[in-house]
């Protein structure tokens, strides 16, 4: 087992771990993006709130979430370790150094970008995840007409509490069948939070950091895993640039902008 310890404590081993955890986090971004697109649905937040309940109560999702938190910390820790090792290996910079001639500036500033993202994750989880689980998030009653699909929403009193995050029932009247849903309203928290211009600006800056971090990180992960090849390097660069560096950050940035100008 000694060779395993040496392998994963070496620079190559740490880059290998960085690559695996980084690609896992890229996968999470896709899932998170798809889920958050529910915010744009014109149903007063019903789809997003039911999605939030599913993501925080499903046993499998909860188990994966704990792995996600661990991978975020491991990815950040190994990143800082690599930066420290590189700086220690060359404590005195060369008298003449033109870094721009040898690498893109994103690769030379991954530590700064990563630190920005770590701060963003802490703020983001504090504003929404922690508040949703431990804060006083209001409840909303939704009435869904099962025949027409029409949705009506009514905010419940601030003193209203229920044991579960969501409770559902079916009622039948002369007007038709209706589904009544009382659910913890994270949508309202998001809507209220993004009325603050400074929080919107903070998220936009963070999404720029995500874009630049992934511009280098996605391609670098495949190189660290030894999966770079002329046949598909072009595809990797295309996905890294247009999907992870542009589409994903732009999609996340659109959410605070949507609520701010709504």
Helix content: 55-70%
Biggest β-sheet strands, sense, barrel:
4 strands, antiparallel
CATH superfamily of the largest domain: Fumarate reductase/succinate dehydrogenase, transmembrane subunit
Instruction: Predict the CATH topology of the largest domain.
Output: 3 helical TM bundles of succinate and fumarate reductases
Regarding CATH, which class of the largest domain? Mainly Alpha
Reading the helices and strands in chain order gives: HHHHHHEEEEHHH
Cα Rg: 23 Å
The chain-level mean pLDDT equals 86
Query: What is the strand arrangement across the widest sheet?
Result: 2-1-4-3
What is the first-to-last residue Cα distance? 58 Å
Whole-number tally of structural domains: 2
Beta-strand residue percentage: 5-15%
Task: Give structural notes.
With 262 residues, this protein is an alpha+beta fold. It has two domains: 2-92 and 107-136 and 188-261, 3 helical TM bundles of succinate and fumarate reductases (Up-down Bundle); 139-184, no CATH class. The chain has helices at 2-9, 11-36, 46-57, 59-89, 105-108, 110-134, 186-193, 197-224, 233-261, and strands spanning 139-145, 151-155, 166-173, 176-184. Strands 2-1-4-3 form a four-stranded antiparallel beta sheet, with helices on one face. Strand 3 (166-173) and strand 4 form a beta hairpin. The longest helix has 31 residues, at 59-89.
């Amino acid at each position: 087992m000694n060779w395993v310890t040496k392998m994963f404590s070496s620079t190559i081993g740490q880059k290998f771990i960085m690559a695996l955890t980084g690609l896992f986090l890229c996968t999470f971004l896709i899932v998170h993006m798809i889920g958050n697109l529910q915010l744009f649905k014109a149903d007063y937040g019903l789809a997003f709130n039911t999605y939030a309940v599913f993501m925080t109560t499903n046993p499998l999702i909860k188990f994966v979430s704990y792995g996600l938190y661990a991978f975020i910390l491991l990815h950040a820790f190994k990143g800082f370790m690599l930066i420290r090792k590189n700086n220690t290996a060359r404590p005195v910079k060369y008298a003449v150094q033109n870094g721009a001639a040898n690498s893109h500036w994103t690769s030379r500033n991954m530590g700064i970008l990563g630190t920005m993202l770590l701060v963003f994750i802490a703020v983001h989880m504090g504003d929404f995840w922690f508040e949703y689980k431990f804060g006083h998030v209001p409840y909303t009653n939704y009435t869904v007409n099962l025949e027409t699909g029409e949705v009506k929403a009514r905010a419940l009193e601030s003193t209203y509490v229920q044991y579960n995050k969501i409770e559902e029932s079916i009622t039948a009247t002369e007007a038709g069948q209706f589904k009544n849903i009382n659910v913890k309203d994270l949508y309202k928290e998001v809507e209220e939070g993004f009325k603050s211009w400074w929080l919107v600006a903070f998220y936009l800056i963070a999404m720029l950091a995500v874009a630049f971090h992934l511009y280098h990180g996605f391609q670098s992960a495949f190189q660290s895993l030894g999966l770079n090849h002329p046949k598909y390097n072009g595809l990797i660069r295309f996905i890294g640039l247009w999907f992870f560096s542009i589409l994903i950050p732009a999609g996340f940035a659109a959410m605070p902008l949507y609520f701010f100008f709504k």
